[in-house]
Amino acid sequence: MRPQHSTTIVLHRVNYGEADKIVTLLTKDGNKLSAIAKGVRKPKSRLTASVELFCVCDISYVQGRGGMATLTGANIKQQYGGFLANYEKVQYAYDVIKAVNSLTEQNAGAEHFAVLCDLYLGLEQPQAPLEVLWAWVRLLQLHGRGIQLNKQTNGEPFLDNAKYFFDIENAGFFAAVSGNFLPEHIKLLRLLYKYPPSKLVGVANANNYAQDLIAPIKQFALSAT
Q: Within 13 Å, how many C-alpha atoms sit on residue 209's CB side?
């Protein structure tokens, strides 16, 4: 069979046999591809690039009859390595990669590829919580899962002098004296549903508010898996 070519991002990889790896790849046009990289764990393998995380790679492969492709060549097109020394940022990236893999079927959609590229680029900035939160918000949007941001989960309006808890079950916020979120957190989420992080650089304390919101919004996004 004639080799096929694609631009991909690695979503998952696992050792197979003595020197191979099986990888799940997300293509630029939004398809998921399962492939075996034979001998990739051997020194100086020409397929090493095909299993590298946090990069965009041009690959060639032969599609097998059983659905598993065999990689025949690979070259890194874009390497996002500026955040690899930061454990927290690496964990953020891992979390989003795993979510994309879990949330998507065979035809994932090109938007998921763009989310990962934008996230990797954002993580190379000195401060990245806003980019990380935006990635989770985009995943929610892509999978039709909204958060109630116009009123509380009990139907009451938001108050500027109240504190709030995030209610995962009801996808929204409710007021509580001991709440850990402010109206500013909710306003930031509203903005992220409309604009990318590049449009919000002038929002005061945006990264601090985003940092607070990452864990609960991630938990809400993963509650669908």
A: 20
Task: Please give the full DSSP string across 145-211, using - where no structure is assigned.
Answer: ---B-SS-TTSPPP-TT--EEEETTTTEEEE-TT-SB-HHHHHHHHHHTTS-GGG-TTSTTHHHHHH
Assign 49 to helix, strand or coil.
Answer: helix
pLDDT tens digits for 94-145? 999 999 999 998 888 899 999 999 999 999 999 899 999 999 999 999 999 9
Q: ∠ CA(13), CA(19), CA(23), 5° rounding?
A: 20
Full-prediction pTM beyond 0.85? yes
- What pLDDT, on a 0 to 100 scale, did the predictor assign at position 225? 64
Sign of CA dihedral 149, 151, 157, 158: negative
Per-residue pLDDT at 108 = 85
DSSP-based helix, strand, coil % in the chain, nearest 5: 35, 25, 40
Check whether 172 has a pLDDT greater than 80.
yes
Quick one: which of 118, 119, 115, 139 has its CA closest to 222? 139
